[in-house]
Amino acid sequence: MIKIPIESLDRSIIFSIIEEFVLREGTDYGAYEVNFQSKIDEIYRKLESDEYSISYDESTESCTIIANVSLDKYCN
């Protein structure tokens, strides 16, 4: 996996990746329902605060969002 700095991506690309991630991850957000926009906003805040990162997997040729704690195990 390769970590992609969000500063290197256009804002529209970042939000497309976030939307795809939120849709793929489903609705397991705890004891109460969280609306789609709130989920997107939360992920974006975590990307900006460097808690999460966008990563690219060369084997699947796809991007995902992953917690930096986990990403450190996989990045070259």
Helix coverage percent: 40-55%
Overall number of domains: 1
Strand arrangement across the biggest beta sheet: 1-2-3
Task: Tell the overall outline.
Answer: globular
Q: Tell me the structural class.
A: alpha+beta
Low-confidence spans: none
The CATH class assignment is: Mainly Alpha
Show the helix and strand layout.
Elements: E1 2-4, H1 11-25, H2 36-48, E2 52-57, E3 62-67, H3 68-74
Antiparallel strand pairs: 1-2, 2-3
Helix pairs in contact: 1-2
Q: What does this protein look like?
A:
The protein contains three helices and three strands; from the N terminus they run βααββα. With 76 residues, it is α+β, with helices and mostly antiparallel strands. It has a single domain, classed as Arc Repressor Mutant, subunit A, CATH 1.10.10. The protein has a three-stranded antiparallel sheet. Helix 1 packs across helix 2.
